[in-house]
Amino acid sequence: MPSTCKAYIVHDTTSDPVPGTIERRDPRPNDVSIEILYCGICHSELHTAHNDWNNAKFPFVGGHEIIGRATAVGPAVKKFQAGDIVGIGCLVDSCRTCKNCKLGKENWCVSRTQTYNSSGKNGEVTKGGYSQHILAREEFVLKIPSNLDLAASAPLLCAGITTYSPLRAHGAGPGKRVGVVGLGGLGSMAIKFASAMGSEVTLFSRSHAKAAGAKAQGASRVVASSDPNELEAVAGTFDLIIDTIPFEHDFEPYLKSLDIGGCLVVVGQIGPLKVLTSHLAGNKSITYSNIGGLPETQEMLDFCGENNITCDVELIEYSYIAEAWKRVHSGDVKYRFVLDAKSL
Q: What region holds the Enoyl reductase (ER) domain (predicted)?
């Protein structure tokens, strides 16, 4: 029989999340059933709730940065048992048969099922981690290193893999000069990862107001992107720049900052990339990266365990969620809100 649980639900584009109950489907033989302990708040939940991408399915339950405890496992489950501390990120299923799935790149599967606001295999609309319980097939459940703080680990399931994946793909490490544009949830994780990988890390921010915060995350310096003289001083000096800004903006200053053969990776903005081909002279490139597959996500979590990396978070109760959404929208958080499920 399907089960019900408490959740915070958005009913339309003008509403904040409010308490209610949702129904979870019957567990399947390969499912892990999970009691949610913590869930991070991602800006994408605001975009979905406001129907900015014209795909919102109401009632909507957000949350794809989930840490919980396995309460039951199906008879086909091999890797987990009841009592395990586990995580769920942005995906809960995929076709498992296409080329991308076989390569461990489920994030590019055209039939992937996202953790919320997505149509499941039986037509049900998925509902995320702003709730008491969730279930997912075994392959989409992740092991959380035992030494990590659980609340501060929740954002690793989205903000973490979103920045880890392009850093790994483009060879961040000793001798690499890495720039990070923006110091929010994504930017802070990009700095932590690039620094732990051994790169020299620079933050691009509109001013030096966030310099202390950037250096606390692992950056060696800050470049004020509003100052033409500072931008000129770093022209042609970066191998890789991770751009985390979530709204449409000018890429030219960052492309000019790349060395020959350098790459600008966009992980924040969703929308048209307006770039002049002349800005790519010198074999420069611009690309987009979106989370990562399940094997890489587990690799990222293991890397965090080995290097004691988590996200700086504000742990909040559900009664604060409307105010938290307002602060996320205005960029007023250092650097991620995490909901404590005990307050549901």
A: 12-339
